[in-house]
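tool_call predict_complex ligand=S-adenosyl-L-homocysteine
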Amino acid sequence: MIGLISATAAGAAARDRLAAAWPERTRLYGGPVADAVRAAFAECEQVVCFLATGAVVRLVAPLLGGKASDPGVVCVDEAGRFAVSLVGGHGGGANELAREVGGLLGARPVVTTATDAVDVPGLDTLGLPVEGAVAAVSRALLDGTPVALDREVTWPLPALPVADTHTYTHTRTGTGTGTGTGTGGYAIRVTDRDVVPGEDEVLLRPPTLVVGVGASRGVPAEEVLELVGDALRDAGLSAASVAALATVDAKAGEPGVVAAAERLGVPLVTYSAAQLARVEVPNPSAAPLAAVGTPSVAEAAALLGGGELLVPKRKSAARPAGATCAVVRRPGRGRLALVGLGPGARDLLTPRAKAELRRASVLVGLDQYVAQIRDLLRPGTRILESGLGAEEERARTAVAEARAGHAVALIGSGDAGVYAMASPALAEASDDIDVVGVPGVTAALAAGAVLGAPLGHDHASISLSDLHTPWEVIERRVRAAAEADLVVTFYNPRSRGRDWQLPRALAILAEHRAPTTPVGVVRNASRPDESSQLTTLAEVDAAAVDMMTVVTVGNTATRRIAGRMVTPRGYRWQDTRQEEETR
Ligand code: SAH
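tool_result ok
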């Protein structure tokens, strides 16, 4: 039983929501709060107090007996923002209760015990079918008990606090059934084989299998399903790992095939006869060539996306056979997330970036950026950090890890695609990996927000680093921006070894803009030591600029208004608004 105690109207409202949701599990304790807590503590396995933690600490302190016997106590604050696991996190189940209560009330569960702070993704949240001892293995992960990870097939899993045994038996076609990984103890096994989970084992079923199907007109769904079922069983493969049925376009509406895909709960993918005819197969034949224009349907459709043919073409048992099938194992595709961390402040790191950091099992980045987000990573994340200047190596490493089937996050400050790692990485990457881009707040935007609204009209960013770009090219672009009257933000404006480029670039702009043109200099935007200066083209002090800085130069319309840098939207803007208003 869960005892519920509240003192205020807001607390009572939240309490009543819990009571309504769990009528069988909860009991209200009214009257003076101290008495209510004492009674609930004595009578219930768990207690939820809609009170400040301080108040509850004072009330339960004299009642505490020991970890094994105390009820689990959860506090929910007045505003319903947090569900705090206060006492009995494990033994009393308060950690779990805090999560449940949080889920129900929209409050954030606060759990401070060590093993729960390990922050492990639920095995049922990995997006893959799971079988076996889910509860026991989850518990082991939470408790820090060693769990082995046996990956028979590659799949880009998030980081898990496990001992990775890297089996990678791609070539094992797998026959018959077996149990256990032989390691003893707790294990997570990533497999598409038809094995029975061991006592302390969880099976994760990645969708690696593609079943190619050929069919005569009018074939019954049962015949297709029996054929597919037999093929998987004989090859020792699990139906839970079937990703799709594949066939030729001409059979896209064949009722027996459509129904079979539906019953297996997988999509039906179709290809044109011409596409299929180009696939090299071990068992071509004349019949489908005559009927649909390709010498192979089942094998070709299964093999078209690449992979290893585990079951060559076989026919259904009916005479004449109405269906053929073939099974291919596709290599798991690795995942490369290109994640921009924003300019520095934690609250300018997007929730999506955070989610991708937690989705990854391998993190690649510059050491100083890794330090910035290390606390967000899941335990078990493999961190591959390197120093300044190792860009190409980082790009290559990230791509190689993704190609090995891992979930990789390649990080960069600001936006990962702006003067950062995304382009060198994608220049290396082939189409055998999935790529996910997460935009970040780039320095020009962070600085713009500090300065006012300097980017209110057309603007350009220009990097003044001539390490990889010849100075003539940079100068040509600065000149073009000057002539086009674009607001310009200079990245990489000045370093110890590169001190003449910024004055030179400013001089070019000055040929086209008044000496009074506003210039914003922002250093460490959004970081603790942020500083900014609003000055003019005539007065800007290039010597005060370094590599932590961006310099934004206004266009001919940019003004300083109330100490802020403002680029108007254009002359016609206000006229148009007036027109709209009078319409
Ligand atoms: N990908 C980054 C840019 C990398 S180039 C982004 O999108 O912001 C590095 C340059 O960015 C630095 O030399 C500096 O000019 C600028 N920069 C990055 N972060 C900054 C910050 N917080 N404040 C000011 N300038 C910054």
